[in-house]
Design a protein that fits this description.
This protein has eleven helices and four strands. The protein is mostly helical. The protein has one domain (2-300). Helix 2 crosses helix 4, helix 2 runs parallel beside helix 10 and helix 6 (118-145) packs antiparallel against helix 11. It is globular.
Length: 301
């Protein structure tokens, strides 16, 4: 074991640093950090994208468990919303995993005179578009649209609130009123699909989705998101384990590093306003997008 550590100390140190950073993100934003881990494993540690996705999913499962331990309160606020969204996650997660497996069986593609791996290129391209869309909306909303709106979220209404697909029910963390259970389940299907496809745990979607679409306040959205990240990453980890897409030593190192980071992230979140959390989240996603664009550029050069 000692010789293994000596021979792989740079590899292990990189994993610990990534894990600690992602732990802070999970504790602070309720996001599992897969949108950082997946490209980081690919770019800095040389993992193939399918292995980066699977290892990231396994790591998120452990990290989100730590975050729930630090953040969950006795009232279980947000748990009912998490339950209904989670009902749609298994179907979506399997669909995303199946898409990755189909890509693994494809022959190399030739794009602009370059030979590229279908898995790496497709997942990185989807990642880039996805992160750009979320970062762009968060920057527009928090720095332009709501620039002088303050931090009052009591009258906030989600964009999907008018979709009254039955059944509807009252939730403690949605102040606008009764919300459609069907819409929550369909949201879970989409989140599960992105989790299985990209190994992101869904957290990068959940904070903006639960705030802008469902209508939760920022901090309850982060808490509900942490619950859902744990559920979606469990399913994603199971499917990717069956597909042999997980590097278990690296996953263990990432989880070890995250153990301390989640506590620090939870402490910082308790001292930060909801509006500030959303602003910081925009910059984190923007940084992840730049990493992915850099890797895509390298592939095409």
């Amino acid at each position: 074991m000692f010789n293994f550590i000596l021979e792989n100390w740079m590899f292990l140190t990189g994993g610990l640093l990534i894990g600690f950073s992602v732990g802070i993100l999970t504790g602070f934003f309720g996001a599992g950090g897969g949108f950082i881990v997946t490209p980081a494993l690919n770019i800095f540690l040389g993992f193939e994208m399918n292995m980066a996705v699977g290892t990231s999913a396994f790591q998120i499962m452990g990290t989100s468990a730590f975050a729930l331990y630090h953040n969950l309160d006795r009232r279980l606020m947000g748990s009912r919303i998490a339950f209904f969204v989670a009902a749609g996650i298994p179907v979506g997660t399997f669909s995303g995993f199946y898409a990755v497996q189909l890509l693994k069986g494809k022959a190399a593609w030739h794009i602009l005179g370059r030979t590229v791996d279908p898995v790496n290129f497709t997942l990185l391209a989807v990642f880039a578009v996805f992160l750009a869309a979320i970062a762009g909306w968060l920057i527009y909303d928090n720095f332009i649209l709501r620039k002088d709106a303050g931090d009052d979220e009591s009258s906030h209404v989600g964009l999907l609130f008018p979709w009254r697909l039955p059944p509807v029910r009252k939730f403690r963390t949605i102040p606008a009123g009764e919300f459609s259970v069907t819409v929550l389940i369909l949201l879970g299907v989409f989140i599960g699909f992105m989790s299985g496809l990209l190994g992101i745990g869904g957290g990068v979607i959940l904070l903006p989705a639960l705030f802008y679409l469902v209508g939760q306040s920022t901090k309850y959205a982060a808490l509900t998101g942490t619950m859902l990240v744990f559920v979606s990453s469990c399913f994603a980890a199971i499917f990717h384990a069956a597909g042999h897409n997980i590097n278990y030593p690296m996953a263990a190192v990432l989880i070890l590093g995250a153990a301390g980071g989640t506590k620090l992230g939870s402490i910082l979140q308790s001292k930060t306003s909801g509006q500030a959390i959303r602003k910081y989240f925009a910059f984190v996603i923007l940084a992840a997008w730049l990493l992915v664009v850099y890797k895509l550029t390298r592939i095409m050069m």
